[in-house]
Design goal:
- Keywords: Oxidoreductase.
- Belongs to the short-chain dehydrogenases/reductases (SDR) family.
- This is NAD(P)-dependent dehydrogenase, short-chain alcohol dehydrogenase family.
- The chain is an alpha/beta fold.
- The chain has one domain: Rossmann fold.
- It has eight helices and seven strands; from the N terminus they run βαβαβαβαβαβαααβ.
- A seven-stranded parallel sheet has the order 3-2-1-4-5-6-7, with helices on both faces.
- The longest helix is centred in the middle third of the chain and has 22 residues, at about 100-120.
- It starts with 6 loop residues before the first strand and ends in a 10-residue tail after the last strand.
- Bound molecules: NADP nicotinamide-adenine-dinucleotide phosphate.
- The site of NADP nicotinamide-adenine-dinucleotide phosphate has 30 residues, from helix 1, strand 2 and helix 4.
- NADP nicotinamide-adenine-dinucleotide phosphate binds near residues 37, 110, 114 and 186.
Length: about 250
């Protein structure tokens, strides 16, 4: 489904959805470059992925790091980049009265700034055609108590995908976003949300369970591949029915 030997860059590829995506790409015969800030976590992930993976420690919110990431990717595999998955992201509880400007800015800087930096830096290194996938969230369209920064950041990601798509369509570069609902990944550890709480949330998911990371990866693979060649500027909901089905 994915171009054999395609080169894909996945930011935040050391964990959760990013790692599952890298794993799936490798199993389809692609070469993958993963990035993240924690060197040990990244090295372990790269080891699991095998010889068709290359890891670069890089902060996705740093334009300099992103430039270095693509230089390293192209230098290592000696080819242009076919697929970019701007996946790196964080989630924080930010109750309005208790959240500092720095805490708010941090969420926006990683979830929006990093996506912008990831895409902008990729442009000189892209093959044609190329596919860019931005990882947004169901939260883009749903106000959530104590998550205003996260929700706003993901709404911005959906919007960025549409404007990038408009700007790059004449250059044979497609850009789409994907909006997972609840996926069972380590992101909830950082929020202090337990597995038991996650399972409790399942009651409001029409499919009655969170997604497995590989189920989100399968949809990212679709957007990365030629199977979605007539899609650009779209947002793909992969949420067990949460956005489309009324709870009543
Ligand atoms: N899990 C869900 O329910 C869900 C739902 C909707 C959307 N999403 C979105 O899916 C994406 C992946 O989330 P996940 O659930 O897979 O989370 P995760 O398991 O916590 O993985 C996040 C990844 O991003 C990396 N990362 C974070 N900040 C970074 C930065 N500044 N620069 C580079 N890498 C960075 C992390 O590595 P380091 O910490 O080492 O940098 C890690 O590899 C996020 O954008 C998230 O908002 C998740």
């Amino acid at each position: 489904m994915l171009l054999k030997r395609a080169l894909a860059v996945v930011t935040g590829g050391s964990s959760g959805i990013g790692f599952a995506t890298a794993e799936r790409f490798v199993s389809e015969g692609a070469r993958v470059v993963i990035s993240g800030r924690n060197a040990d976590k990244l090295a372990q992930a790269a080891k699991k992925l095998g010889e068709n993976a290359w890891a670069v420690v890089a902060d996705a919110a740093s334009p300099k790091d992103m430039q270095r990431l693509y230089e390293s990717a192209v230098g290592h595999f000696q080819c242009d980049v076919n697929v970019v998955v701007a996946n790196a992201g964080i989630s924080r509880q930010t109750p309005v009265r208790e959240t500092s400007w720095e805490q708010f800015s941090d969420v926006l800087n990683v979830n929006v700034g990093a996506v912008y930096a990831t895409v902008r830096a990729s442009l000189p290194f892209l093959a044609r055609p190329a596919s860019i996938i931005l990882v947004a969230s169901l939260a883009a369209n749903q106000g959530t108590k104590h998550f205003s920064a996260y929700c706003a950041s993901k709404a911005a990601v959906v919007s960025l995908a549409k404007s990038f798509a408009a700007e790059f369509v004449e250059h044979d570069i497609r850009v789409n976003s994907i909006s997972p609902g609840v996926a069972d990944t380590p992101i909830f550890d950082t929020l202090g949300i337990s597995n038991a709480q996650l399972l409790q949330w399942s009651n409001v998911i029409p499919m009655k369970r969170p997604a497995r990371p590989d189920e989100i990866a399968a949809a990212i693979l679709f957007l990365a591949s030629d199977a979605s060649r007539y899609m650009t500027g779209a947002d793909l909901a992969v949420d067990g029915g949460m956005s489309g089905i009324s709870p009543f």
